[in-house]
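Hi R.,

As promised on Friday, here is the backbone we talked about, encoded as structure tokens. Could you run it through your design pipeline when you get a chance and send me back a sequence?
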């Protein structure tokens, strides 16, 4: 979908990014890098249909028609805040002709604010809100190598969130926000073995998948 935005606000976010300064090795830093502003120049210039028509006139597309490429800016931002946020961390990297497991710990919080990574006109966000908060409720962890390993999970047992259900089923935007994580007991699940664990144990895991629910 191509849309025309005011150049002054096209790259604006719901919350200020300039003072964010995320810690390297954190999920905030990953999101910051993924949504950073990129300049498209030289061999990465953007094919501009408007520029082409302005230069050559409104001709029909033919093989002989030339195209105009122009410098541009590109930024990936979230346009709709989902009720459930799933983050998939890349846990492998290319090493020559082989893939290697990345075992580095990535810090992630119990409450995540998505606002610095959302467009200023983000849907499902009430007007005036500058926070889009999510509470962690599930983590998938992988132990082992690229050739073999074992998946385990951390899950939080908590009460049902009726407001979140309304958002999922009816698309109703939240009017008020909670700032604290949803209360509940964490459990570590490995095949048929289930054990109660602390939140600090969960936050120290080497996450492969993170599951957050919207705080309403």
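Update: got your reply. Pasting your designed sequence below so it's all in one thread:
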């Amino acid at each position: 979908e191509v849309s025309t935005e005011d150049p002054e606000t096209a790259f604006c976010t719901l919350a200020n990014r300039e003072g964010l300064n995320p810690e390297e090795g954190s999920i905030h830093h990953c999101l910051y890098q993924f949504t950073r502003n990129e300049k498209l120049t030289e061999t990465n210039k953007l094919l501009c249909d408007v520029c082409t028509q302005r230069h050559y006139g409104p001709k029909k597309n033919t093989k002989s028609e030339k195209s105009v490429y122009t410098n541009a800016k590109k930024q990936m931002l979230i346009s709709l805040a989902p009720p459930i946020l799933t983050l998939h961390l890349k846990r492998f990297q290319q090493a020559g002709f082989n893939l290697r497991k990345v075992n580095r710990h990535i810090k992630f919080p119990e409450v995540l604010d998505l606002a610095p990574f959302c467009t200023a006109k983000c849907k499902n966000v009430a007007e005036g809100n500058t926070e889009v908060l999510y509470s962690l409720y599930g983590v998938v962890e992988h132990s082992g190598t690229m050739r073999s390993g074992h998946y385990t999970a951390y899950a939080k047992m908590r009460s049902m969130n009726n407001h979140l259900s309304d958002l999922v089923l009816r698309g109703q935007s939240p009017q008020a926000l909670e700032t604290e994580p949803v209360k509940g007991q964490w459990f570590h699940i490995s095949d048929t073995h289930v054990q109660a664990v602390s939140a600090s144990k969960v936050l120290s895991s080497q996450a492969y998948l993170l599951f957050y629910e919207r705080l309403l």
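One thing I noticed while checking it: The chain has a mean pLDDT of 86.

Thanks again,
M.
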